Amino acid sequence: MTFYFERFENRVPPPPLEHSVSRELLWQFLVTVCLCLGAWYIWWRWTASLNFGALWFAIPVATAETGAYFGLVLYAINLWKVSDPPITPPPASIDECNGSGDEKGHAIAVDVMFATYNEDPELVRLGIRDAKAIRYPHAIRMLIHVLDDGRRPTMRAVCDEEGVNYIARGSNEGYKAGNLRNAMEQTSGDFLVICDADTRPFPTLLERTMGYFRDPKVAWVQTPQWFYDLPAGKPLDAALARYLGAPGRLLGLALQKLVGPIQLGQDPFVNDPTMFYDIILRRRNWANASFCCGAGSIHRREAVMEAALRSFGSAVERQTIAAVSEITLVTHEHDVAAELVDAIRGEAASFHVLAPYKFHVSEDIYTSILLHSDRERGWKSILHPYVESRMLSPQDLLSWTIQRFKYAGGSLDILFHDNPLFRHGLTLPQRLMYASTFWSYLGGLWNIVFLIAPIVYLATGVSPVSAYSSEFFVRILPFLVGIELASMVGTWGIAGYKSKASYLAFFPINLRALWSVLRGSKISFPVTPKDRQAGSHLHLIWPQLAIVGLTVAAIGGASLAYLAGLGPYTLSGLLANAFWGLNNMLAMSIMIAAALWRPDASEDTR
Prior knowledge:
Blueprint lengths: L20 H28 L6 H24 L15 H4 L10 E9 L4 H12 L7 E9 L4 H10 L2 E3 L7 H11 L5 E6 L3 E2 L16 E5 L11 E2 H9 L1 H14 L3 E2 L9 H8 L15 E4 H11 L3 H16 L7 H12 L13 H10 L7 E4 L5 E2 L6 H21 L10 H13 L2 H18 L9 H21 L6 H9 L1 H12 L23 H22 L7 H26 L10
Parallel strand pairs: 1-2, 1-4, 2-3, 6-10
Antiparallel strand pairs: 4-9, 5-11, 6-9, 7-8
Helix pairs in contact: 1-2, 1-17, 2-15, 2-16, 4-5, 7-8, 10-11, 11-12, 14-19, 16-19, 16-20, 16-21, 18-21, 20-21
C-alpha cells in the first residue's frame, strides 16, 4: 500500500531550540518592561479614556483589553525561564527506578500501546515496526500492544503477522480513555508508552528518556510531537514564476532579498507544534507543570494507578485498586496465582475504576492535574526536549477543526467542572501554568471584540476611547512595540506571527466550544481523520470571511465619508482603526488560505 507521506520518510526532526542565558535575561527584562507599560495603559484606559457617551462600546473594548493583558501576564510567567533536567543514562533495573540504585534487580518491563479505532491497519503496522526497533542498552522486557476499538479482523491479522499483542473489548465506552483503561487491566509493565495509531517511535525513545525515571518521583515524561508530513511549500520566486513567468521569479527573488526566505503553502494549517512543545511546555519544567499530551509519552505504572486512587473516593475502591496495582507490578517477576489476580481484578472491575483514565475527551491533561496535585507523593513531570517519534498532521481544514474543537472543548470542560485553580495540592506556580492554558481557551471572548471593534468605529464613527489623541498613542504604541520585541526574543528561533494570527482567527471554534460547555453539551470523542478529506471547506470559515468582508466595506465607507466631510471621523481615528482592521484581515487570511489549500497533484500519491 502506498501512502502520501512515504516520500517524507527521510525527513529528520529539528533539534531543540538552543538555550541562551543572555537571551533569557534579555527576554525577562523586556517582558517586565512590557508588563509595566501594559499596566500603565490598562489603568489609564479605565480611569481616563472611556468614552462615556458610548459605554455600550467602551466597556466591552476595555474589558477585552484587560482580559488579553491578564493572558499576557500568564504567558510571561509561563515563558519566564528554561530549566531542562539533565538526561542521565538509562537504568538497568526497576530497582534503579525505585530509588534503591541496585543494578541487579529484575529487568524493566515496558508496555508500548497503540490506541486505534478506524485508522488503516497498514498505517498502524508502520508504527509497530518502528516500535520493534526501539533500542535499550540493558535487558528489557518490552511488549507491544494494539488496542483496537474497531474490533477489526484485518487489524488482528496485522498483529499476528507482526507478532504483537492484540487487545479489543466489547464496547467503546470512554473512547480512547476507556481503551487505555481496558488495556491496563490486561498488562503488567512497569512503564507504559502511549502511542496513537499514526505514532512512529524512533529507536532512541527509551534510551534517552528512561534515565529521568531514576528519580522515583517522576510520574511521566512527555516527548514533543513532530509532524513529519507538513507541506514544505514553495519559495516565493518559484510560486510567482508559475503564474507570471520570468518577471514573477525576479520579483520573488527581489522580495526575498529584502525580507528573507518566503515559503508559500508551508504548513497551511499552522500545525507545527514547535511553539507549544519547545517554548510553552518545555518552560514549565521549572514549575513541575508540564502536562501529558498523550501520544509520545512514557508513564510509570505506579503513578498511573495512583491517579485512579485520587479519581475515585470510597475506601473499598482505593484498597481494591491498591491491591491490583501491587499485584500487577509483580506478576511478571513472581509466580502469583492467576486465580488471585483475576479475582482481585474482577472485584475492581465492579467499581469500573481499575485504571485511572477518566472518560474525558482531555483525559491526558486531567490525569496530569490529578498527579500534580498529590502533595503526599510529590509526583513530577518532565518535558523531554528532543523529538522521539513522528506523527501525521491534520491534512485539511475539516480534520484541523475537529482536532482543535476537541482540545478547546475538553479544556474548557475541565475549567468549568473541575477547575484546577481551586484543587487542593497544586503549588502556586502549577496553578498559574494551568491557568495560562485554560485562560487561552477563553480568548474567543475578547478576540471577537477586537475583530468587531474597528468595524463598529469605521461604520458609525463611534469610538471606544474618549479621543484618539496624542496621549492615547503615547500610551499604546510603546506597549504594542514592547509586546513584539519581548515576544521576538522570548521565542527566538521560531517565527511566531502565524501562531499569534491563527489564535486570533481561531475565535469561532473557541466560541463554539465555550457555548457547548456552558449549555452542558457533551464534548464528543471523534477520531481526527488521518486521510485528506476531499471537497471545499469554505463553509467552515464563514465567520472569518464575514470579518474580512465587513472590514473591507467599513474601511471603504469610512474613507469616503471622511473625504466628503461626513460623520464624526478624525484622521487619527480613521488611520488607527483601518490599520487595526487590516491586521485582523491578515490574520483571517491564514484560515481562508487553509480552506482553499490543495496539495499539488505531484505530491499526492494516493
